[in-house]
């Protein structure tokens, strides 16, 4: 007669619906590269320690290692939007879970993403063409960025 196996942990851990890939995609969709970090060409990883309540909501986060220039605050903002699934067994006891999450900031991907606090630039282009009877026409291009 086979023995019944016990679960490895006393309390089941909170799980993001869809798994790690879905959480990474959600973070990538929600994150806005800070304008100050773009100006100073800052790249790196922000490591956060997240507190998750018994309902699966993120109730707090603490930066374990940050890179500054607005990236730490942006990482905390995005992590506060996360919601986890918790087993019903845990809800009888009001348990607080902790989890470490790494959020990567890379400039190569930032150019195609939304930027927060960046100045919008406007360009005006003028083309002036001189037409002469005996000579080929000459054109002048002016581009003004402000």
Topology (SSEs and partners):
Elements: E1 15-16, H1 19-30, E2 33-34, H2 35-39, E3 44-52, E4 58-65, H3 71-79, E5 84-85, H4 88-91, E6 97-105, H5 107-110, E7 115-116, E8 123-130, E9 138-145
Parallel strand pairs: 2-7
Antiparallel strand pairs: 1-5, 3-4, 3-6, 8-9
Question: What does this 3D model show about the protein?
Answer:
- The protein has helices at 19-30, 35-39, 71-79, 88-91, 107-110; strands at 15-16, 33-34, 44-52, 58-65, 84-85, 97-105, 115-116, 123-130, 138-145.
- It has a single domain, classed as TonB (TolA/TonB C-terminal domain, 2-Layer Sandwich).
- The chain has 146 residues and is α+β, with helices and mostly antiparallel strands.
- The chain contains five helices and nine strands, in the order βαβαββαβαβαβββ.
Radius of gyration: 26 Å
Low-confidence stretches: 109-115
Strand content: 25-35%
What distance separates the N and C termini? 80 Å
Helix content: 10-25%
Biggest sheet: strands side by side, in what order?
4-3-6
**What structural class do you assign from the helix and strand content?**
alpha+beta
Number of domains: 1
Quaternary organisation of the protein chains: single chain
Number of helices, where a helix is a run of at least 4 consecutive DSSP H or I residues: 5
Number of strands: 9
CATH level 4 superfamily: TonB
- Average the pLDDT over all residues and give the rounded result: 79
The major pleated sheet works out as:
3 strands, antiparallel
General shape? elongated
How is the CATH topology named? TolA/TonB C-terminal domain
Along the chain, the helix and strand elements come as EHEHEEHEHEHEEE
For the record, what CATH class applies?
A: Alpha Beta
